[in-house]
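Raw record, unedited: Hydrolase
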Amino acid sequence: MARHSGGRSWYGKLVGAALGVTLLAAGASVWTAQAGPTSDSPPKASAPATPRAVVKPVAISIAHASEAGARGVNITIDDGPDPVWTPQILDVLKEYGVKATFCMVGTQARAHPDLVKKVVAAGHRLCNHSVSHDTAMDKASEAYQKQQILDAERMITEASGGVRPVYYRAPGGAFTPYSRKLAASRGMRPLGWNVDTKDFERPGTAAIIATVERELPNGPTLLFHDAGGDRSQTVQALRKLLPRLKEQGHIYGYPVR
């Protein structure tokens, strides 16, 4: 699974300042993708969202397959929720009766709890995408990785009203053995992807569709985005792809756990 190419550039343009746990506690709602460590001493992770005793560990291997089987397709949506684009994507998913997995950034979930609750109410699954979408997490200390994963778990769970994320997707695919083990111990299956639509580059609706059709034989898990910039091409691509893939005999499902 390749790291996002170009992911830093479009995220970096949106960062107002490097944000840490202190700013998170202040309740800032600005977009914080690509925030990294802010001091030589990584912040200590907050308590897990739920007591360890009530969490069932899952496999530590990175999931790519679909619970729907050989013809399954997993729609995964990263980096939100976003007040402009998440509702539009929810509308398209509802129109075609498709359930998806929303990989949420902790600061975004905290800033928009109403949207997190809407995602849950619509029957979609939640995925932990770290606190601040730092694609260099795999180069950071284990203490920093722990903070990013456990604090995001807590923030998403609180925003949802108590529904926990059941997957963990490392920003840009920056998994480590430690981060996979930690996430799995908290009941969050590490989640990869097979088809990177590159929609964050805004290549055009037709190009996004062509990428999916060309690369779907590689595996069922498709990567889209609902934040980090203008996602109108993503919305339009989903509007065309969802009925087309269904007509081709594909079944929409969730990634395996």
